[in-house]
Amino acid sequence: MGSIAKQYLIQLQRHPLRTKALTAGVLSAISDIASQKLTGIQKLQLRRLVLKVLFGVAYLGPFGHFLHLLLDKIFKGKKDNKTVAKKVLVEQLTSSPWNNLIFMLYYGLVVEGRPWMHVKSKIKKDFPAVQYTAWTFWPVLGWINHQYVPLQFRVIFQSLVGFFWGIFLNLQARSVALPKPK
Q1: Is residue 15 a contact partner of residue 51, using CB atoms and an 8 Å limit?
Q2: I want to staple 78 with a disulfide (CB 3.0 to 4.6 A). Which of 53, 83, 140, 182 is the partner?
Q3: Mean pLDDT of 107-133
Q4: Does residue 170 surpass a pLDDT of 90?
């Protein structure tokens, strides 16, 4: 095993919350850089990038860490099909809409600095489609995560998949369409 991977696993074992938070921050950064490039932003917006890293470190990593601990505690670490289905259902009915709403609020109010009324109307207009898309995308990945991924790696798995979901959310959450480069 490579030296970096070995060090990462040691950190994950010794400092799971910190390691998951930093991992979520790094993956949020990479996801945002990709999103900025895909939307035609020529010069990297550092303020936006820092705010997205902060969201990953302060919210996504810790939330996922404690959510998976709680789900494993509630369902006593079981991995039979019925239990995994219950975990996925709970996750999809609670944390999925919550996380999408929090992201859209954070993006509109903090990242873009839009007024509440604008953000509220944007969420009212776009949240149902975002959540519907989430429910077509995340349950399968949630099943894989709960069925096959060890507890200590679940947030990391979600963060890796979240890299692509973050690009989708960035594209959905932005308020102003940028002109296409000529």
Answers
A1: no
A2: 83
A3: 94
A4: no
- Identify the residue whose tokens are 């995560």: 145
Decide if 173 contacts 103 (C-beta within 8 A): yes
Look at residues 51, 18, 21 and name the one whose alpha carbon lies nearest to residue 36.
51
Taking all residues of the chain, what is their mean pLDDT, rounded to a whole number? 90
Question: Cβ of 139: how many Cβ atoms within 10 Å?
Answer: 16
Name residues whose C-beta falls within 8 Å of residue 170's C-beta, 6 or more positions apart in sequence.
31, 32, 35, 39, 107
Residues 24 and 60: beta-carbon distance below 8 Å: yes
What is the residue whose two structure tokens read 């839009």? 114
Q: Return the structure tokens found at 2.
A: 């490579």
pLDDT at 175 over 70: no
Residue found by looking up tokens 């239990």 in the block:
83
Chain-centroid distance, C-alpha 172: 14
Angle at 125 between CA 122 and CA 128, to 5 degrees: 120
Segment 133-146 shows an average pLDDT of: 93
Residue 165 CB burial class (10 angstroms; 0-12, 13-18, ≥19) = buried
Task: Write out the two tokens for 34.
Answer: 């990709």
